[in-house]
Amino acid sequence: MMKPQRAFLRLFTSVVRLRKSHQIQIKSLEDLAKLESLEDVDPELVKRLINERTNELNIQNELQMLKNLQSQEKQHQDVSLRKFVRPAWMFLLMSSLVYLSGHYLWCRLEHDEREEDLKRQVKAMENELFSLIEEKRKDSEIDTEDRNASTRSWYKRWFW
Hints:
LAFE_0G14950g1_1, coiled coil
């Protein structure tokens, strides 16, 4: 058990502390920092002031963290749009390559087909030309035979 003198001393010192703390009007931790010693300050007051300041700092930190999260989310949205730019260019380039390759093959096949048609036409015309030449040669042989056979003079053949 405690001696009555000690209990009285404790009670007296706490009353003195309360009286001094009310006289000084400690409202913040800055006011505590201005004091020369913390012996006369009530520990509950110090605890309350520390808790208040801690709560203020926690709120500020949470607000700062929310601002950071919002800015990161905005950056993430911007980055997500950038992620589609390169694949879009790759798609356009690849589709252009496929289109140009197909167009080249199509033109090449049309050219080959046209070339075959023209070769057939040339062959047909050559055959027709050779047949006409052969026919002309036969006609000229017949004409030469007719000339030799006819005894009429040339001017009679022309006018009659």
